What we know:
By secondary structure, the chain is α/β, with parallel strands linked by helices. 41% of the residues lie in helices and 15% in strands. Strands 4-10-9-8-7-5-6 form a 7-stranded mixed β-sheet, sandwiched between helices. Strands 1-2-3-12 form a 4-stranded mixed β-sheet. A 3-stranded antiparallel β-sheet has the order 11-14-13, covered by helices on one side. It is globular.
Amino acid sequence: xxxxxxxxxxxxxxxxxxxVCAELDRLQAQNPMLDAVIExxxxxxxxxxxxxxxxxxxCNYLGLDLDREVIEGIPAYLxxxxxxxxxxxxxxxxxLYEQIEAALTELLGVEDALLLPTLTHIHAAVIPVxxxxxxxxxxxxxxxTIYDGAVVARARGAGLQRxxxxxxxxxxxxxxxxxxxxxxxxxxxxxxxxxxxPRLAAFLELARAYEATLYVDDGHGFGVVGERSRAETSxxxxxxxxVVRHLxxxxxxxxxxxxxxxxxxxxxxxxxxxxxxxxLLKVTAPPYLYSGPSPVxxxxxxxxxxxxNAGRGDELRAMLYGKTRRVxxxxxxxxxATLNGSGFPIVEVPLADDLDRVGALxxxxxxxxxxxxxxxxxxxxxxxxxxxxxxxxxDQVDDLLTVLDELADRGLLRPxxx
Length: 418
């Protein structure tokens, strides 16, 4: 007989975790912008219940989820391959995987790459392999899924140390204190909350000096930022080939991971690596050995998206930059704080007042945003995150700026200079 669920014991790990997440639990119960059921989509507008909202919470940065060239090209792949490959990657893969990996290695300028369904899969599978019995050194603001992968590595015998966010000096102190190899330094590329890149040159200098590997999750940078050139159409650079190329660095001592779920609007992710490491991962990574693969429509949308990126991706990035710049310039005009110092299309806005009140007001005014709640962010950064896309219209941005004006007039935004 199934036993009924009981309250966790006082002082247990579950009790402590529920206490930490109490604010999230309350928001989830009361705010329509958490755990929402989206019933209809019309361009970059969504319907939640009977309310239509401008969507500034989407990560579809290039708007390929709505692109007719992508949408109309998918059925031909379904006719040829069906809806879903029935094999684990170990047993067999449609040639579409090899086509994507070849195009990706050329775009990024890397030796090789391996595709798996999600970055969460990759972090849990790859970080323990790279860390072995050595040491994982983790940026304090690294994405939660990177931390979870590091915890798996620790359970298998690796040491785990955290260093202050984007602080090369703090990392160097740990590198001196923890010489056990292999040493794996894990961090975000474009940070998923601040929108800012790391001090990559400084971290790479340390990685090379101390024979460590720099493991970078560029889920939010890939497809948006890329190599710099006089011919670029915006400060985001060209080709969308990621933060390493954007910052002018090489892949020496770098393992880059990224996903197609943001800029390319598809269920697929990658890890770049030497071909020798790729062969190792094929026999050690559970998602390759056992997990179900990405649907054919996802593989098709990646291939079609890569074609769009080659043909007009820089045009889409220029549109994205222009819309993001309008929002950032307006926040500066209002004297409102934002964590974004890069100009990239993730704009977190800390609040001077409680998140419940602001979330409700945003929803009433027709703006759908990502609520940045504790413990997802530190308490002094609680607020909301805006993600711009190439398919947000000028009118939608106008409406957003009007709502930001109202929030500022009511004293709800945190001032830039307290």
